[in-house]
Design brief:
By secondary structure, the protein is mostly helical. The chain has a domain of about 90 residues. Helices cover about 85% and strands about 0% of the residues. The protein has four helices and no strands. The longest helix is centred in the N-terminal third of the chain and has 51 residues.
Length: about 130
């Protein structure tokens, strides 16, 4: 009976070690994926801001460099940024169509989106709160 308890205890410890060893890389991948998504979203938003919010390319570049330092876990920051930037080009062409069809609606959307993007950009550069 004692051998059975010792065996069960050993199996429990082994299972716990395996579970923990699998969980650590998964947590690392989760932060990588999160930073990858943030880099893409930032590239998309920056393109919109440059196209419609009168944000200069120099200001976009400065933001990009600050963000690159913040998103250290992104696998390939530049590639992710460019993916988002290209994705925005489709949305921008739709906004340009709206500008032609309904200038008042276009102005209202740009105003709201530019305010939101400014807030998002400022908050994306803040260091995350420590737990």
């Amino acid at each position: 009976m004692k051998k059975l308890r010792d065996c069960a205890g050993t199996l429990f410890v082994a299972a716990a070690v395996v579970t923990l060893s699998l969980a650590v890389p998964a947590a690392g991948r989760a932060s990588e994926e999160r930073d990858d998504m943030k880099a893409e979203a930032a590239g998309e938003r920056a393109n919109f801001a440059q196209a419609f919010c009168q944000v200069s390319p120099e200001r976009i570049d400065a933001y990009k460099e600050k963000l690159r330092k913040t998103l250290r876990e992104a696998t390939d920051f530049e590639q992710r940024w460019q993916t988002g930037w290209r994705r925005a080009e489709n949305n921008n062409s739709r906004m340009n169509g709206l500008r032609e069809r309904d200038p008042d609606e276009f102005k209202a959307r740009v105003k709201v989106n530019c305010e939101r993007l400014k807030w998002l950009a400022e908050n994306s550069l803040r260091a995350p709160a420590r737990k």
